[in-house]
């Protein structure tokens, strides 16, 4: 049992990226208070990390098949210590949210409850688990919006929609890749019902919905944004379309659709940051 296991199990890169995303959302919502931004970063990062820990706790039997290198199945961290660590992180996130406002606190509490329900039960239920992850990913933008105020919250809704549909598509494909391990763990996921190829078709439809939502920020950022997001949209659509040709989990893994969609979503997030920095901060100075 080592200190590094406590860091590894929170998936630090994933958690920190979530915190940075929340700050980007705060900037897009016209937030300017650096202390509020830092508090938001801590809240989102630790709650995301806690969810990752709890997910590993409940998935330890499945991970023994799919990911034996993870801290719990490898023996680097005991299940009990992992559960305590998750509780500590959740508590820190909620306590820090008391320093923000009611709506941030409300989202922090709701997301904590949903993360616990997801790890314990919802993940093994068809579609509900995927919907939970999609909402949780999109809600990072809502955090940034509500911290600034109700009017600013509206600005972040299109970004929530883009993230929700894109994440839902990717989660369904990830579940299709993990059919064997999930079945061994007693899960009943949507790809088990639909099959790998039909899951690919569903992902394409969801990506199309995300693309429709991605057009909305044009009114805020103009033609340059529209041209850049069009390239990213086409890349993500191509990644999802590759999954339609796959009939087995092995073929889907080889197609790398989930990885390509993730890269495309990171590119979109970077574009949001660049557009807001230019039009919201740099351009007004000239």
UniProtKB/TrEMBL annotation:
<comment type="pathway">
    <text>Membrane lipid metabolism; glycerophospholipid metabolism.</text>
</comment>
<keyword id="KW-0812">Transmembrane</keyword>
<keyword id="KW-0443">Lipid metabolism</keyword>
<dbReference type="InterPro" id="IPR023547">
    <property type="entry name" value="DGGGP_synth"/>
</dbReference>
<dbReference type="GO" id="GO:0046474">
    <property type="term" value="P:glycerophospholipid biosynthetic process"/>
</dbReference>
<comment type="function">
    <text>Prenyltransferase that catalyzes the transfer of the geranylgeranyl moiety of geranylgeranyl diphosphate (GGPP) to the C2 hydroxyl of (S)-3-O-geranylgeranylglyceryl phosphate (GGGP). This reaction is the second ether-bond-formation step in the biosynthesis of archaeal membrane lipids.</text>
</comment>
<protein>
    <recommendedName>
        <fullName>Digeranylgeranylglyceryl phosphate synthase</fullName>
        <ecNumber>2.5.1.42</ecNumber>
    </recommendedName>
</protein>
<feature type="transmembrane region" description="Helical">
    <location>
        <begin position="127"/>
        <end position="147"/>
    </location>
</feature>
<dbReference type="GO" id="GO:0047295">
    <property type="term" value="F:geranylgeranylglycerol-phosphate geranylgeranyltransferase activity"/>
</dbReference>
<keyword id="KW-1003">Cell membrane</keyword>
<feature type="transmembrane region" description="Helical">
    <location>
        <begin position="222"/>
        <end position="240"/>
    </location>
</feature>
<dbReference type="InterPro" id="IPR044878">
    <property type="entry name" value="UbiA_sf"/>
</dbReference>
<dbReference type="GO" id="GO:0000287">
    <property type="term" value="F:magnesium ion binding"/>
</dbReference>
<comment type="similarity">
    <text>Belongs to the UbiA prenyltransferase family. DGGGP synthase subfamily.</text>
</comment>
<keyword id="KW-0444">Lipid biosynthesis</keyword>
<keyword id="KW-0472">Membrane</keyword>
<feature type="transmembrane region" description="Helical">
    <location>
        <begin position="79"/>
        <end position="96"/>
    </location>
</feature>
<keyword id="KW-0594">Phospholipid biosynthesis</keyword>
<dbReference type="Pfam" id="PF01040">
    <property type="entry name" value="UbiA"/>
</dbReference>
<feature type="transmembrane region" description="Helical">
    <location>
        <begin position="199"/>
        <end position="216"/>
    </location>
</feature>
<keyword id="KW-0808">Transferase</keyword>
<feature type="transmembrane region" description="Helical">
    <location>
        <begin position="153"/>
        <end position="169"/>
    </location>
</feature>
<dbReference type="GO" id="GO:0005886">
    <property type="term" value="C:plasma membrane"/>
</dbReference>
<feature type="transmembrane region" description="Helical">
    <location>
        <begin position="260"/>
        <end position="281"/>
    </location>
</feature>
<keyword id="KW-0460">Magnesium</keyword>
<dbReference type="InterPro" id="IPR000537">
    <property type="entry name" value="UbiA_prenyltransferase"/>
</dbReference>
<keyword id="KW-1133">Transmembrane helix</keyword>
<feature type="transmembrane region" description="Helical">
    <location>
        <begin position="102"/>
        <end position="120"/>
    </location>
</feature>
<keyword id="KW-1208">Phospholipid metabolism</keyword>
<feature type="transmembrane region" description="Helical">
    <location>
        <begin position="35"/>
        <end position="58"/>
    </location>
</feature>
<dbReference type="InterPro" id="IPR050475">
    <property type="entry name" value="Prenyltransferase_related"/>
</dbReference>
<feature type="transmembrane region" description="Helical">
    <location>
        <begin position="12"/>
        <end position="29"/>
    </location>
</feature>
